[in-house]
Amino acid sequence: MFPENAMWFEAPETVLNSFAVREDDFRIRIDDVQHFMDGYYLYWKNYDRIMRYTNTEQKEAA
User: Other CB atoms closer than 10 Å to residue 32's CB: what's the count?
Assistant: First the structure.
């Protein structure tokens, strides 16, 4: 959770830099955290492949 969203909570320091679902009234559930962490891990694990793909797409468009 970003500071500009966390500041509206009663205790912003408890939710700062955590995960929340905007469509669910910023409720933080353990399964949401698990899904976000899984997605972040896959992005981190495949970052080099994503950058290669992005660079290839940009070169083909030019």
Answer: 15
Task: Provide the domain count of the chain.
Answer: 1
Whether 19 and 36 have beta carbons less than 8 Å apart is answered as yes
Q: Between the CA of residue 44 and those of 12, 38, 57, what are the distances in Å?
A: 27, 10, 20
Domain housing 45: 3-61
Rounded to whole angstroms, the Cα distance separating 62 from 56 reads 10
Summarised one tens digit per residue, pLDDT across range 20-57 is 666 667 677 777 778 888 999 999 999 999 898 888 77
Q: Are 50 and 43 in contact (CB under 8 A)?
A: yes
